[in-house]
Amino acid sequence: MAFMFTNSKGKSYYLHTKKVELKGGRTQQLYFFAKEPGQGALDAVPSGYQVAESKNGLPVLKKAA
Question: What's the structural domain count of the chain?
Fold first, then answer.
């Protein structure tokens, strides 16, 4: 089951991850939220991160303090 976050407006978002290759050849792992679960959906928030809500209600993944 994909990790789901419901914002203050009642909308649900699912956490996903994707590996991308940067111009220099280095790979980086991106985390993002989508309205529907799909390919790359995660079951839990990665360790060292927490979910926060931006001013406009969109969820963001931040490093834990």
Answer: 1
